[in-house]
């Protein structure tokens, strides 16, 4: 089976910093109330998504704690949570990871987050320059992985020192839960290909993603390792292309130029992320240059840091664009949409059938019943049925 014939591994996003219907506006916003986050997790678990990404940062609810709060209400869902080297010791993160993997019965995925805004990192006690953060991360994960694999670790490193570190209980997944990583700098790619199982990219045009995938593959091959690939994208899927583009326009319809200018100026000075620089370069802060590749729309990145592009279109259109990424080597998609609860349904109901992703069966009373086709009639007291063609 070719890579484009295999269904994409499709995850969704838990908006732990808040949600809303309009980008860059205060209208119809939703706080990251745990009950709301639970609604999203339960929905995507039922709809057939394989997992959820929980972000990290000072504006987000803590990812390990949030995942632990959501796990009891889900059955199959995997939780991709963040490890940020330097915010805690590798031994403490090993205990967190081991415990959460056991609580979720082996449903833990780990997202390595090394970069970010220097000012935020300084608040967490991290004062290393960009490339040196990856040297620190390499030592961090040497201890972390040794603990999960063997229960013990020792290291007298430049950045990390661990003397007779011990882990009391192993994780369910052995030798450890899978490691994900996203980073576009040379130092980030060099680090990732020695540690990560899956390399993630933000939603750049296919030719840029292809170039990055080639770089990662070359670096991994030099280390004798094989890395798989994923992409982080927003989705605006509607029944027709026209409806989808109208929804995209609506999403930024209350966004003013002053807010865009402030956001872009902040991204340019507050972050040393190469990936963020690549995202900003796609649109240059201009409203008239937002379709940066066929059906790849950068409107979200006008004010959102990190992943700033969305695939926009009908199910067939978006599926065709995703197959282009699959041809490059992308196997995993981490999707999102605004608001995340409603858009999770739209993506699952409209796009999943085009991608060959199996959703959970609907309850009795919808679909085919005793050779008759059930017609939804608005929830009245009687159900309309049409005799199915034989």
Automatic annotation (TrEMBL):
Keyword Transmembrane among UniProt keywords: no
Record-listed E.C. numbers: 1.14.14.5
An individual GO BP term: alkanesulfonate catabolic process
Catalyzed reactions per annotation: an alkanesulfonate + FMNH2 + O2 = an aldehyde + FMN + sulfite + H2O + 2 H(+)
Signal peptide bounds: none
Stretches assigned to the Luciferase-like domain: 9-331
Gene3D superfamilies: Luciferase-like domain
GO-annotated molecular function: alkanesulfonate monooxygenase activity
Keyword Flavoprotein appears in the UniProt entry: yes
Pfam families: Bac_luciferase
Role this protein plays: Catalyzes the desulfonation of aliphatic sulfonates.
UniProt record similarity statement: Belongs to the SsuD family.
Protein name (record): Alkanesulfonate monooxygenase
């Amino acid at each position: 089976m070719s890579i484009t014939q295999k269904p994409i591994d499709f995850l969704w996003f838990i908006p732990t910093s808040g949600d809303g219907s309009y980008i860059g506006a205060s209208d119809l916003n939703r706080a990251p109330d745990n009950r709301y986050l639970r609604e999203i997790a339960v929905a995507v678990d039922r709809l057939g998504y394989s997992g959820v990404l929980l972000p990290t940062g000072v504006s987000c609810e803590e990812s390990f704690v949030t995942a632990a709060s959501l796990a009891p209400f889900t059955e199959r869902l995997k939780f991709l949570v963040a490890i940020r080297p330097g915010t805690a010791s590798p031994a403490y993160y090993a205990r967190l990871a081991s415990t959460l993997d056991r609580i979720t019965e082996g449903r833990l995925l780990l997202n390595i987050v090394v970069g970010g805004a220097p000012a935020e990192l300084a608040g967490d006690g991290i004062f290393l320059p960009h490339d040196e953060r990856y040297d620190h991360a390499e030592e961090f994960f040497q201890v972390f992985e040794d603990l999960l694999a063997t229960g013990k670790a020792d290291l007298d490193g430049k950045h990390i020192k661990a003397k007779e570190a011990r882990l009391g209980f192993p994780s369910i997944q052995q030798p450890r839960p899978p490691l994900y990583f996203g980073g576009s700098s040379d130092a980030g790619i060099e680090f990732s290909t020695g540690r990560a199982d899956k390399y993630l990219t933000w939603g750049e045009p296919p030719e840029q993603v292809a170039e990055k995938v080639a770089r990662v593959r070359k670096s991994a091959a030099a280390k004798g390792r094989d890395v798989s690939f994923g992409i982080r994208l927003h989705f605006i899927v509607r029944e027709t292309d026209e409806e989808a583009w109208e929804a995209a326009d609506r999403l930024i319809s209350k966004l003013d130029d002053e807010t865009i200018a402030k956001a872009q100026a902040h991204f340019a000075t507050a972050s040393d992320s190469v990936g963020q620089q690549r995202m900003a370069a796609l649109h240059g802060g201009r409203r008239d240059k937002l379709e940066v590749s066929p059906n790849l729309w950068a409107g979200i990145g006008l004010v959102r840091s990190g992943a700033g592009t969305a695939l926009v279109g009908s199910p067939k259109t978006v599926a065709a664009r995703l197959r282009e990424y699959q041809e490059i080597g992308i196997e995993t998609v981490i999707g999102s949409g605004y608001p995340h609860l409603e858009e999770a349904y739209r993506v699952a109901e409209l796009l999943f059938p085009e991608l060959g992703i199996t959703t959970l069966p609907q309850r009795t009373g919808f679909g085919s019943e005793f050779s008759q086709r059930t017609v939804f009639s608005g929830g009245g007291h009687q159900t309309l049925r049409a005799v199915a063609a034989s």
